[in-house]
Input
Amino acid sequence: MRGVKSQTLYWMAITFVLFPILILLGIYMRSVQAGALGELQGWFYPMMTLHGVGMVGVWYVASMGCVANVLSKYVSPSPAIGRLAIVGSVAGVALLLACVFLGRFAGGWYFLYPLPLKGEWPLWSAVTFLASLTVLGATWLIWSLDLLRAIASKYSLPQALGWHYLSGRDQPQLPPAILIITVSLIASVAALGAGVIALALFYNEILTGAPSDALLMKNLIFFFGHTVVNLAMYLGVALVYEVLPHYAGRPWKTNKVVVISWNAVLLIVLFAYFHHLYMDFVQPGVLQYLGQIASYASAIPAAVVTIFGALLLVYRARMRWNLASILLVLGLAGWAIGGLGALIDSTISVNLRLHNTLWVPAHFHTYMVAGLVFLVVGYFYHVCQEASATPENVGYHKLLATLLVVGAYGFFMMFYLSGAYSVPRRFAAYPSELAHGATYSGVAAAFAGLFLLGFALYVVETGKRWRKALHSGV
Amino acid sequence: MASEFRRPGPRSALRRTLATLALTAAYATSVFGEGAPSAESRLAGRAAPDIPLRLADGRTMRLSELADGKPLLITFFYRRCTGVCTPLLAWVRDAVRKAGGLGVDYRVLALSFDDADTIDDLRAQARVTRVLDSPHWSFAVTEQEALAQITGALDFWYRPDPATGQIDHPALVAALDQGRVVRTMLGAPDVSERLQGLLAELRGAFIPYYRLPHQTPFACVSFDSSTGETRLHWGLMLLVLPALTAAVAAYVLFFLGAKRRRMVEAQNGRTGASPVWSCAAS
Output
């Protein structure tokens, strides 16, 4: 491993290997829900845990790997910390695999207290799971701090947050990606800090037997989990600001509106997770209202400004369409569509109906897969293509993108329909009165298979360029 | 075989919110040790057997018949007890009088676990407790097998102490509704406050949250039994701490970055090189 840029290629390789495996786990779960693979039903919840933690982790580090690459264009992230991030993430994944496959840990990716310590799995399995999160969290925290350090080596904090634009000055010019990455990394430190506290309380209980307050633990866990997922999405959006102008042939500059919207994100994103606790009647009412307001306020300004800006950028531009630019635009669309589903679900009166249905996985799969995944894999392709300068077949790229979109949205649609028809989430098997849930699951598994095929073809297409990029020493 | 009892008839608004109660005199704390709170949480939701009872007035009936569709507070005693039994019963009596609702919202049963106790002993204990004339207080004995069932279900233990001739036991009050434990209390130093909260619940107040004592180092909210309000607890500061940490970390990193930049610029000024930020790769 040489510099940060070549480390991005390693993140790609890790993603290309892990993502299809995690998709297969998802297909397995939907197949079990459809009534197939009955003999493997006992593995449903361990696999749900692995699928959830794995997907969140893979796409968080993938987006971090991408923004590290973006930052290396402007500043100097530490290659040593980059190596630590890869080693730490691989070690964390190894621990996760051990606790799930050897210990059958099944506490879910959100590991809600006190489930990890109360399940049917052995205590060592829960401890290994917590150790896995500790390794991952500590690694990512160090990584986030190093990227912030790199930004701080060139910009002051007000400059990195673009505050000089508010007073009408545009010097020093701040790439919007730097603004978004700064905002996301600061919030990441907060989210990972919440994870540290939650883990410390878990360890305290294991060591001393003193239980923790369940409401506090749930707040801390979703402060960590929800915010990390949210920020991974924003890191993906930073890639669009950075790369889309390259294909549109026009600059995408920071301005006052962009600064206001993304600074608002920094202030508000930390409160949005309260919407995960609407069902917790003990949660003080003021925090519930704050959850709804923050959910809207943290998403709408940034999304509207970004999507409006992207549309203006593309409108009547001499766009160079290829797999990268197509996926980046599709990723923004997925962010908007999934985000809309999330906003609907974050509305208290609606959440009371939808919270425990498959509507929830519907919206987060939409913005994770059709949003974040499309953005990151679009960027992956862009990096490999820029490094390898391989001739492109745009028609084939459109076919690939179509395959991914049809597979993904067909898969999401089954979740949305299931949610709308009150099919509960987290059920491994459906009773007869929910037989329609099994039908939707079967169709979803087929669409997921189509998406997997599309992704495999994408890996082949990008992999050829990846090899050239690796050998050319990016 | 014991079975859960169900209460018939319509529920009053107060009855919908059930209570439970367990108390103990402060000096009884040592009897239960530090495991008491975890025992309390373990009991919630557990089914109680519908045992036969022989009451102080000579009648026999089952537990479900005694409850008569109402929530039931159960506590244990034995007549010869020179320790917690009488203070415990007096405490329950006073608390119940203060809270009100006896007979309307719930009934109280004091069950002897000493097979030497007779009907006369039951009446004597009721007289000492000054509830002999209350139709909603019942003192009872039961068969050994039934006693084993209900003490087993409520994790109530007792053992003779040959040195004193007394019987060691915890001071437990369990609240049942529809044959299941809703809430229990064992002795603790702050039991008075907890008892007030429990009685508020008994009178129909909706108490969304209560903490077991000495269990959780931090909490989000706590219930103030004196005002009946849920208050924010200082443990909520743990939710603010990550944001503060992030702000401080960002400030320090950017402060150090600026300091380093100034140093490099100063050096470059001496050598005539360009400032760092303007010569970064583009």
Summary: The interface with chain A takes residues 38, 208-209, 211, 215-221, 230, 232, 235-236, 238-239, 241-243, 245-247, 249-251, 253-254, 256-258, 260-261, 276-278, 280-282 of chain B (CB under 8 Å).
